[in-house]
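User: Can you predict the 3D structure for this chain?
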Amino acid sequence: MNALSLQRQENVSESLCNIRNVINKQGASLQALARAKEIMLSLASQEHLFSEADYPTPRPDEYAKVYLLRDDRDGAFSLNLVSSLPLGCPLSMTIAPLGYDRRSGRRRRKHSLQTT
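Assistant: Here is the predicted structure, written as structure tokens:
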């Protein structure tokens, strides 16, 4: 793993940890989601971490590509990079706090936040 990959991994992990802390302390309030958005925008602004080589934009026959940047250890949160057409900009990030459906044992989305 090269230095840039390590830096990206560290920054993504730190951002996800910060977002999780905000939402766990404040719930999914507007203030918490606004803070989570600030954290995501800060991460997305580091364009050098998210190159076209590592996260290619969709081909013309594809609508979007979703890249998992980080899954929380317990599966409660994930941070994804979404690249979609027509812009193809690989700097739209989503945070998707997940929960588990106890009956089916499958993940279910509680809420999500997207920033571009």
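The first helix runs from residue 3 to 26. The first strand starts at residue 64 and ends at 71.
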